[in-house]
Design goal:
12 helices, ten-stranded mixed beta sheet, three-stranded antiparallel beta sheet, alpha/beta, disordered N terminus
Length: 511
């Protein structure tokens, strides 16, 4: 469930008009011919297996290893291939190859793309997706996870594609959420010519601070029954502050609910914990992360903060403990744990030398822009795992509050981390990205959907390019996107003062 939650970005919809169908490219050699070594510069590769898989889509299933230990899977369509390559990011601590899905429902104009995914250079036990023991003393494994693996896979996949079809892909796309979103930003910053279009969803860009943030919320949890009580009180107080009572809070920063109102229903300690969750970690007034738990996200705390089947002690406790024990401090230096981590500026600075390699905080994307790259960043406003305020802070620093010609940001009201939410549960900008890259039309509006427990769509809502928001036009169902128009945002200051402001870089430098 954990990996699926963090890596799932289902590709749906029909590519917009204006992208003319191209003639399909047939393979120039057999699938079995790919079982061999490939001397890709700085990414020597051994394909261990390549077999044709029949079914609704017939493809060559390629599996192999990029030195030293980056496992990957590449699917090459036998029919209908029209020159596109789509690579998926890897969530959490990775350690497993998420089955790369073919873009579905894209119509004949799109054809079948070659698709690929990687385990980021290490293999975690199936029973423990949070395992980080691989990083305890292996710097190469760390670096593959921090920055190298997605770039290496892009080079290897394109090389194998050129061998199989006789030519390299004409357009390349990347999409990922959470750690995969961090990878998307990192690719645009460090390797600006790898991809024509990138989707970076809920990006864990602030890696230096993120594991500590997980420790903060894990150390301040409350029981699930109290979480439900709290959520109901927050919604009663804040649902209508965005101008519409519709079961969602469009911008959590509008809400100023004080959990002290629940005195007698929550203990004094629980009230203090909730206040700390909303505020985020700090040391003497200095913020240690650019954000806190968003108002309205509380129901998602039940599985992120607390024990849940298949998720051990909860996602935050597992991320924090495993990250602090084996991954985020330099090899050979004393590490920490969930129980002993100190929320101080001094401890924050101890994390910088190692984790700065994983951050995707460059503010200079000119090389990506010059290469013709297009970037879509999106984030759920109710994200309980990576607060959306951090992405707004990065966007403000990157753009100065202006919308660039080559990038767009979308903030999806009420959505949790990558998927799910009180009302809106799904957001997929892939169709819009392809239309932008290949048709030249920058997206100004993308639909979000809300599904019930049976998968039925029960709400649609337009999401406008930030800082615009959707406003109800006053008539018709609030569950129908047709009844909403674009309106100015709420005017919050997006830039946040915090301990890591020196981590933003003026230019991308690939190691």
């Amino acid at each position: 469930m954990f990996r699926k939650l963090l890596t799932s970005l289902t590709v749906l919809g029909t590519v917009a008009a204006g992208i003319a169908p191209a003639a399909a490219t047939a393979p120039t050699r057999s699938c079995a011919d790919l079982v061999r070594s490939f001397d890709v510069p700085d990414a020597r590769t051994r394909v261990a297996s390549a077999a044709v898989v029949t079914g609704a889509k017939e493809f060559c299933d390629v599996r192999g290893t990029i030195e030293p230990n980056i496992g990957f899977q590449l699917k090459l369509p036998v029919r209908g291939y029209q020159g596109r390559y789509h690579q998926y990011g890897c969530g959490g601590f990775c350690g497993a190859i998420g089955d790369p899905s073919f873009p579905s429902g894209c119509g004949p104009a799109f054809g079948d793309a070659a698709v690929a995914a990687t385990d980021d250079g290490h293999q975690a036990p199936p029973e423990n997706p949070f395992d980080t023991t691989w990083a305890a003393s292996d710097q190469k494994a760390r670096d593959d996870y921090f920055f190298r693996a997605p770039h290496a896979l892009s080079k290897v996949s394109k090389h194998i594609i050129s061998v199989f079809y006789g030519k390299a892909p004409s357009k390349s796309y990347f999409s990922g959420c959470s750690n995969g979103g961090r990878e998307g930003l990192l690719l645009a910053q460090r390797y600006p010519r790898d991809f024509d279009g990138i989707i970076a969803a809920a990006p864990g860009a602030y890696y230096t601070a993120l594991i500590g943030y997980q420790a903060w919320i894990a150390r301040n949890t409350i029981p699930n029954d109290k979480i439900v009580l709290l959520h109901n009180a927050v919604m009663a107080a804040c649902d209508g502050l965005d101008g519409l009572v519709d079961g969602q809070i469009d911008d959590p920063r509008l809400c100023e609910f004080d959990p002290g109102a629940l005195t007698g229903q929550l203990t004094d300690d629980e009230i203090a914990r909730v206040r700390r969750l909303y505020a985020g970690p700090s040391d003497g007034g200095v913020r240690l992360y650019p954000g806190g738990q968003p108002y309205g996200s509380e129901i998602s705390w039940t599985f992120w903060l607390n024990p849940s089947p298949g998720l051990g002690r909860g996602i935050a406790p597992e991320l924090a403990d495993n990250g602090l024990k084996h991954l985020v401090y330099p090899i050979g230096e004393p590490h920490s744990s969930l129980e002993s981590f100190e929320f101080t500026v001094r401890e924050f600075r101890r994390l910088v030398p190692e984790t700065v390699k994983a951050n995707s905080l460059s503010l200079d994307l000119r090389a990506f822009q010059r290469a013709g790259g297009k970037l879509i960043i999106w984030h759920g406003a109710g994200d309980q795992g990576i607060p959306f305020e951090g992405t707004l802070d990065y966007w403000q620093r990157l753009t100065g509050g202006k919308t660039p010609s080559w990038a767009r940001l979308f903030v999806v009201p009420s959505m949790w981390h990558c998927a799910g939410g009180d009302t809106l549960t799904d957001f997929d900008p892939f169709r819009a990205l392809v239309s932008w890259v290949e048709g030249g039309s920058a997206p100004s509006r993308i639909l979000a959907t809300g599904r019930d427990s049976d998968g039925k769509v029960v709400r649609t809502r337009p999401v406008f390019a930030y800082p615009l928001r959707a406003r109800y036009d006053g008539s018709g169902s609030v569950d129908d996107a047709a009844n909403f128009v674009a309106a100015p945002g709420f005017g919050f200051e997006d830039r946040i003062r915090w301990a890591g402001e020196d981590l933003y870089r003026s230019g991308p430098v690939a190691p």
